Please model this.
Amino acid sequence: MLTKKLPSLPSFLLLVSRRASHLTRQQYDVIVVGGGHAGTEAAAAAARVGAETLLVTQKIQTIGALSCNPSLGGVGKGQLVKEVDALDGLCGRAGDWAGIHFTILNRRKGPAVWGPRAQLDRQRYREFIQSELLGTPRLTVLESSVEELLVTEPNPEKTGRHRVAGIRLANETHAISASSVVLTTGTFLSGSLFVGQTTSPGGRIGDAPSSAGLSHTLKERLGLRIGRLKTGTPPRIVKDSVDLSLAELHPPDGHPTPFSFLNTHTRCKPEEQLPCYLTYTTPGVERVVRESLHLNCHIQQDTKGPRYCPSIESRVLRFPGRKHQVWLEPEGVTSDLLYPQGLSMTMPPDKQLCLIREIPAMHRAEIHTPGYGVQYDFVCPTQLSPALQVKSTQGLFLAGQINGTTGYEEAAAQGLWAGVNAARWALSMPPVALSRTESYIGVLIDDLVSRGVTEPYRMFTSRAEFRTSLRPDNADLRLTLKGFEEVGCVSSLRYTEAIRVRDNLQDAMEALETLALSTTTWRKKLPNIHISENKNTSLTGMNLLQYSDVSFEMLASVFPEYLSAYSEFSQRLKIEAVYRPHCDLQKKEIERIQKEENMSLPQDIDYLSLPVSMSQEVRDILNRVRPSTLGAATRLQGITPAAIVHLLNYVRHIGQMERTQGKQTDQKEDSEEELCARNASLPQ
Ligand code: FAD
Model:
């Protein structure tokens, strides 16, 4: 239930420290640098684990700020939000509080790849995060800029590694010491802003970059490999200046689905939600982009930008002559602005105005704030352990955009896990890891630390090889119990609720399994359902639920004495029934791959025309490198285990494979063909 009351913002601000001299202590277990999406989750998680924690951030008012799109979740990203929530993080509940337009993306596909998403009210989101941090025991928030990271020199006789000692703030001489420091400086590390031909130092519009001292310590003293990436944001448009009658109306879902497992409903009532609108670019947009290219520094630079959230300049240059989607999204309940998703741009402001006016719905539009680009340093994440600790520096943890990712959800997920491990390090507890088989957070961290990044990394469901079991609906069962019993970051309230859900689901599934009846009896009970199984077969309630036109409610209406107690879980039971066989099959496939390490790959494979289930990014890498074996393909940077499954199936399917080891019997080939065929019908 959403019962939380927000304190009013002014009284809240009095309760946090704006100056270091107000701090009651100069020694903390954990210091978190940066109050963005990674930093807020890290600070709250460290405190939940039991560490005395200090969050230092440049401006208290920007804690929880949404630098770009006011939205949360989506395909792959929504799974991360659910997992952060299952581990008692903040962003899911903040999304339920601040959401003003809720949708489940990908609804036409299977529930494993549904993408819970919400358009947010920026101010409400910030207020919620700020009030949560205030209410977190053992957490102090300080408004300041960290000037320097303090580390000890490595002692060759001991670990041979640096060790974190604390931080020094800008304009302060004394240090604040800590056992662990979590850096979450986002786009602020050596950040530069770009609009047209103008460049200025900055981490985000209106915010100074992170100090040069911090970059110096990471590069020069710790010798970390640093790369450079870029991203951008669209101009914000004055709502009243847009003719929305010329755009397609996209209403939200009739019943908002909360992100948080603790919430039964969202703050925004169904009828209070705001719509989004869809429109398209015109040839005039492409013309303005081309004519202003020579005035656009950001786009001319080779630095890599986000492939999946590209600027309008990159989109029209890469796909000339195409109509590109532009979503017009509300920025908040009382905001006068619209966010034009798809129009991130860095040309001079006068050209930005010309460009947006080439779109019919915006032919008289006014720009409130021009779009801009940002370039920033990131730390190559292969230098981190799965606990997100820098391997060469004890007690130093990194999370968020500083690790080469893009997006609030990716940042929040890493932040939570880095915060947990920073606290455990400080409290002399062993590190904890999440595997690829149990969570998207595990997939994200494993991709980062084992493969690194060559461009801003974002989450997709295709990156997870076990995605039919890593579903948004079951994140609590996968993570909340572990979060309480092994990790220590989950409250007893949430744990008790997860136990209740687990026990009820188990009881309900047992009740469904014991309902074993002949097909003839089922046909009599459910005359409108076409039951295809052989006449003498016995089918359980779980088997019946696998039929697309059978709902739990139908079964409960036939057997109320067994099932009506579980109607609260009807959707979850339906999903469990549908996915159970696929999850078992998927596990077997991964085991099969591990055995096929030495399988040779034909050198004439046309990787670029591989099935579309494999991303363009993966196909490009395979085409460039042309690995000789499946094992070599698995070790390539950017190749996910999910892509390996597709590659293996493809090679088998076209019959081009050559083996370097082992022989397969005809019977085995038959059963693999069968597996391929069944795989093709897996729900996505
Ligand atoms: P941030 O949210 O950036 O937070 C960093 C925090 O660290 C800030 O609060 C800052 O004040 C603080 N800080 C920095 N240095 C110091 C210091 N020395 N001392 C104290 N505090 C410090 N994501 C997408 O998914 N799609 C997009 O299209 C997209 N476009 C973007 C465009 C722009 C212009 C920007 C700026 C970001 C964009 N993002 C986009 C990225 C998204 O905002 C980030 O991925 C996300 O906010 C990263 O979270 P974070 O916690 O790592 O960093």
About this structure: The chain has three domains: 26-481, 491-592, 599-681. Confidence is low (pLDDT under 50) at residues 1-15, 656-684. Residues 33-39, 56-58, 62, 67-68, 145-146, 184-188, 203-204, 207, 210-211, 214, 231-233, 306, 309, 344, 374, 400-401, 406-408, 411 surround flavin-adenine dinucleotide (CB under 6 Å).
